[in-house]
Every structure is written in structure tokens, then in C-alpha cells.
Amino acid sequence: MKSLNALDARIIRWIGYACAALVGLIFLGAAAIYIALRSSLPRIEGELALAGLGAPASIERDSFGVPSIRARSRIDLAFATGFAHAQDRFFQMDLMRRSAAGELAALLGPSLVDADRALRVHRFSAVAREVVERAEPEQRRLLEAYAAGVNAGLDALGARPWEYLLLRLEPKPWEPKDSVLAAFSMYLSLHEWTGASELAREHLRANLPPELFAFMYPVGTAWDAPIEGGPWRTPPIPGPDVINLREANASAKRTPASGYSLQPTAYSRSATRDEVPGSNAWVVAGTHTAQGAALLANDMHLGLRLPNVWYHARLIVQPSDREEGRDLVGLTLPGLPFLIAGSNRSVAWGYTNSYGDWIDLVTVEIDEQDPARYLTPEGSEPFEIHREQIEVNGGATQAFELRITRWGPVVREEANGRVLALAWTAHRAEATNLEMAEFETATSVDELFDHANRAGGPVQNIVAVDASGNIGWSFMGQLPLRGSHDSSVPSSWRAAGTGWLGWRAPSEYPRVINPESGRIWSANNRMIEAQRWFDLIGEGQYDLGARASQIRDALRALPNASEHDLASLQVDDRALFLARWRDLLLERLEEYVREDASYREVRELVRNWSGRASADDVGYRLVRAFRNQVRADVYDMLTDVARATAPPGIEFEPSKQFEGPLWALVTEQPLHLLSPKYESWDQLLRSSLDTALTRLSSRCEELSRCTWGRENTLSMRHPLSAAIPFAARWLDMPQVPMNGDVGMPRVQGPSFGASERLVVSPGREAQGLIQMPGGPVDHPLSPFYGAGHEEWVRGEPPPLLPGEAEHVLTLTPGRT
């Protein structure tokens, strides 16, 4: 027994030694990882000698980590900006260039092969090289200096950026063409580039009566809020002589059950998908501001992720005998060397997406004599064949072939033999250029627009103010000149005079300067008279004007606007658009309660709605769910027969202007446009409400606790957090219930919303305001990781100009 006890003691002792050794190894491993991660932190103090720099430059950071970058020439400023971007955001920059080039799988593995294949079709790497070759010499020098600064910033880190340490890969050096690829990543964010909407529209147009299609797909509604011209008149409801759903689907008649239950209910996918808009911008003349100076406000709505899209910075070129000074502040895009939006002390500018029609699907007619050729206005022509190889981290290289036409790549081959190519402005090197760099020296709104109308990039509404008090709106980006074809559906470009015939001249671009109202607003809505608008940019499904009209009316109610007034309007979450839906729902609930007491709680919650998209409001979520379900049910009912015959892979959704016909139907209630499965329109409304309530009840244990914030919870994540679950709490921003939604100035979803909120008057930058989510530095050990994020969540804007310098890094010229 004694010997057994001694053996037990030795075993326990050895287990203890082993555990201690294991703990030590874990500790050493953790310490090694921590040291490696610390080594990859950006340099924020001291002095560095760097080859490629012509004269000393500095990067000063305030308490939020926002940099002021100073240099003695514009070329050195580009170098120092590249250095700062690389130190703080290189992984983001790499993802941007790789996503545009279709090279994500080489970094992130086999799961990205399909995404790469879809993106490689556009051959953006080749287009980017051509853009650089076509650039003006001075602009090319900017890209080259920026690339040198990026690579110097990478080399100056004590270790690879932390993401590459985890991926066990080395980052590839930056090249000038990669800056153009970063710009192409914005095309992918701002344009619909699949052709899906054209295919859906083509099928519906072919399978619905023309009058019903025109009614369901108006080009505008009474909600339109242009700065010139008036709203669009919704077409009349088609009569029973056009279509009678009571006869078309009589065999489908059924009586929906009343009341709601916790049982799963089938619902249309479109019921849960909102019309996602993007961006607000407005300007106010000095005659309507507190300080007598013109004001600009801009909040661009994009996907919310870590790091944030934009990088807040002040860029300063010190004046000298050889070069004029510059003092720029606002938003830069990691990957590009110049200011995207902000102020140069003389002019301030911002953007909203134009939602023009920038793609066309082209029906390619194959040469019957040779399937390797296709027909053009000049005769038969061979397809260009490009062989692409997708490198895969952890997998075999994937190879495939692309067929390219003179109009664009082949993107779809249908079962009936039809071949479709995609024409997209982004495919044309002449549609992308670096003219935006010239914004930095513009001294007036007109001069800025002269550059904007020649600039290349995703076509945007640009609004601007200058220090002399002028305000204005125009387009930025290249507008294609279309021939005699219908650009809203796929069409053949074989005949002469069809297709894209060139580009609009800058003299054709519209401008609105100093309107009598003293205010200009843009919220992805139509901006000018309808016919001129569509002649220039096509029908790209601009946003319903509810948000724009709310901004317009709020601006008109501000006779002496200040910077803080405009910042408050940026977070306006009043749900004015849904007010009439609330009234409709309450009217119906009064009847339902008399028949079924189970609706009483719903009625009280809707009655108590604050009228805002408040995170703690249940009433808002109920009204919203009701409207969305009615929208889905009515749309599905009207398109049921047409959708049943659709080819695979076509998705159907209501247009952004469907609110006009929808409201006409639910208020006028034409019986001939009601499916026979409903006895009355009231029964459809009740069925939609029951479906919405069933879905909400399945998500919430109690309806009274089913607040809007439970659905609208911020999910702002780092791309690698899903792969490192234990680290998500350090990498991702806190999941916070958020105010706001679509249809109001404060556009906010779980992973979509204001990527920045900017307010500025040129020459008064010290009074300017800015809010940005996520923080400036993409490193979880940095004190600046998430800096400013809480202020963005609360809607409390810090000053636009960086504060007093707390950290200074001096860059000096080194040996080449």
C-alpha cells in the first residue's frame, strides 16, 4: 500500500510538472504571438529615414489617432499618405485590390474561388494598367509616389500586418495600378453589375399586359423631390378589360385563416428585403445659415465593416517658391493618394450615388457559319479568348476561359442558346481617370464642376459650396452616349447605330447653381426634370423620394442653419414615410379587435409608436413589418403567373418606385386586381398582417419585447473575426441596437449605414464636424482601434479638424 501511495505521489508530481510545462509553453506561445502582434503596430512617434522622399514630412496624430500629414510638395504628400495608409490599413487595401482583380482566393482560400471567377470576368487588372498608361504624367507620378510610400510603410513595420501573421502569408507590394483597382472596388459597391434587373424586367414585360407593367414599374411617383421639375404622375390602375385576376386564377381561391399563430408561415423573400438606398448630401446658401457662409452636409451610406471604408485625414502641402500650398481635410480612401470628399478651404464637396443605368446586357448573335465568331455592324468577328488562372491558398490553381466581345465579356449562356455579354462603363479605360486629383486646387463651384464633368469613376451626384457662398449640383463621372436600342432590357447591338457610341461632352452635363430656394438636396433621388434626367443617365432605379422630401422640408424649416443643425438632420430618424401606413393599420385594427381580442395588444403597441425608427420602439417594427408584407404579397399576386414561367436564376423584386402603385391599390382596392384566394382587399391586408405577426412572434418570446432594435442591431465585423471566433469580441465593434432605417435621413441597418457624416463650410473648417465608425487604425492592439466609434453610434460629431498633436512621426529622405 505504501509503495502504491508513493507511486501515486510520483504520478501526481509528474502530472504537475507536465501541466506546469504546458502552461509555460502556452504562456510562451501567447507571449510570442503578443510580441509579434505588437511588432506590427503602426509607428506613431520618432523619426524614419525613407528612400523615395524628396524632403522631410510628418504624420501627426491627435487623441483619436486622426492624422495630419504635412509635406513640402504634392508628390511627397502622396508618399507620406501612402505610408500612413499602409501602416494603418494595408489589409483593407489588399482586399480592395484583390476583390476587383478577382484574386481573393489566393489570400483567403478555396471558399472564394467562385467569387473570384465572377469578378475575373471583368478583367479589371488589365483595365487598371491601361488607366495608368493613359494618365497625365503628373497624375501618374502621384500614383508612383503613393505606391512607394505604401511599400515604405509596410517595410517600416516591425512585422507583417497582423492579418498576414495569422494567415501565414507575406503581403504583396503595392503597384500604381492597384490604386485604380481600389477605385474599381467602389464601382462594385455602387453599381448593379450582374444584369439581374434587366433580365427580370425583360421577362415581366414579355409576360404582363403592357398597361399592368407600366403601372407596376413607373419611373417615379408623387414622392419625387427633384430640385428642378416636379414629381412623376403614377400611371392609372389598369381596368378589368386589361387584366382580371379574379378570372385568371379562379382555381386558386381559398380563404385565409384569421388571427395569427406561432406556426411557421411561408412568405415571399421580397417581404424581408428593403430598397437599400445610399447616401445623403445637401448644401445651404449663406442667406439661410447662422454665420452667413454656405454649408455642405454629406453622409454616404455603404456597407459597414472593419475597418471603415474611409480614412479621415488632414493633408497639408506647405507653400514654397516652387509649389502652391494646400490644406485639405476630409475623407481619403486607403488605396488612393487624394482627398475624396471634404474641403480645400475654398470649395467643399460630397456625393450621393446617382443610380443611373451604367450597364447593358447585349444579345450576342453567333455566326451560324462559325460558332467561334459573332456578328457586328461590320460583319463577323472572332471572340477574344482569355485564359484565366485563379491561385488558391491551400488548394489547386483553377483555370477557365473567358469569351470577350467588342462590347464586353460573355456573362450568360441560356438554355435556349441565347448568349449575353455585359457592357459596363467600368470595363472602358476611358471611363476611369484621375481627374479627381484636380479637385484639390479648385477655387469655386464652377471650377470644381469643370473637373467633375471630366472626371472618371462611378457616376455620382456631386454637390458643392465655395467660400464665396455659391452652392451647386452636377454629375461626376463619364456618361455613355447610347444608340438606338432599348437599354432597359437585353438587346442586340448587331445593327449600325446601336450600342454605346461614345461619351457625353462636359458641355452636356447639367448643373444647378445657386437656385432661388438657396438649398440643394440629394438622396439618391431624381434631381432634375424627368425627360432630361433619363436621356442622360437612363433608368437605373433611383430611390423613392420619401427621404429626399423629408430632407427638403427639414431644410426649408431652418432659416438660419448651423453646422450642428445639419448634423442633427443627418441622424433624423422620424419615420414620416410610414405615417400613412400606421393610420391604415390602426383603422383596420379597430375592426379586427371587435372580432378577435387577440389583436388588442397589437393595436395598443401601434397606437403608442413614437413616430420614429427608435431602437426601443415596438410600434415602429409592427408598422414596418405590416407594410413590407403587404408590399410583398401584392407584388407576388400581380406577378404570380409571369414568375411561374421564368427561367432559372432570375430574381423578381418590387422596384423602388412600387410604393406609388402599391398605395393606389390598397386605398382604391380594385377587385379585378385581387387574387381570387382573397374575398376582399381587407382580407389581403389582414392576411398580410397575420403573416407579419407570425414571423415576429417566432423571433420574439413576447410581442411587447419585439423592439426595432432587436432586429436593427449593429453587426460591424472584421473580415477575419468569423475565422477566429475567440477573438471576435476584440475584433468586432459592439453589437448595439440602432435607431434609424431606410426611408428617412438616418439610414441604418445592421451592416449598412452612414460610413461617415460630414458637415463643413470652406474656410470655416474649424467649425466643421465629422463622425466615422470603426476608428482609423486596423489593429486591435492600437489605442485608436474603434476611436470615435461610440460618438458615431450616438450621433455626436467631433470636430472635423484633427485636435492637438499627441504623437508625431517625422519622415526624412533616406538613401535610395
Structure description:
The protein has 816 residues and is of the alpha+beta class. Helix content is 35%, strand content 17%. It has 23 helices and 29 strands. The strands form seven sheets. Strands 1-29-2-3-7-8-9-10-18-19-23 form an eleven-stranded mixed β-sheet, with helices on one face. Strands 24-4-5-27-28 form a five-stranded antiparallel β-sheet. β14 (384-390) and β15 form a beta hairpin. The N and C termini lie far apart (78 Å).
Short description:
The protein is α+β, with helices and mostly antiparallel strands and 816 residues long.
Which labels suit this protein?
globular; 23 helices; 35% helix; eleven-stranded mixed sheet; 17% strand; alpha+beta; five-stranded antiparallel sheet; 816 residues
Strand order within the widest beta sheet: 1-29-2-3-7-8-9-10-18-19-23
Helix-and-strand structural type? alpha+beta
Compute the CA-based radius of gyration. Answer: 29 Å
Contiguous uncertain segments of 5+ residues: 14-30, 250-272
Beta-strand percentage range: 15-25%
Mean pLDDT: 91
Major sheet: size, sense and barrel closure?
11 strands, mixed
The percent of residues in helical segments reads 25-40%
Total helical segments: 23
Structure summary, number of beta strands: 29
Gap between N and C termini: 78 Å
CA-based shape:
globular
Topology diagram in text:
Blueprint lengths: L1 H38 L6 E5 L6 E5 L5 E5 L2 H28 L3 H4 L4 H8 L3 H11 L2 H20 L5 H6 L8 H15 L5 H12 L2 H7 L28 H4 L31 E5 L10 E5 L1 E3 L7 E7 L8 E7 L6 E5 L3 E7 L5 E6 L8 E4 L2 E4 L1 E7 L7 E7 L5 E4 L5 E6 L20 H8 L7 E7 L4 E6 L3 E3 L8 E2 L7 E4 L7 E3 L5 E4 L7 H8 L8 H11 L6 H8 L8 H17 L4 H8 L10 H27 L14 H10 L12 H19 L8 H4 L16 H4 L16 E2 L2 E3 L2 E4 L8 E3 L17 H6 L12 E7 L3
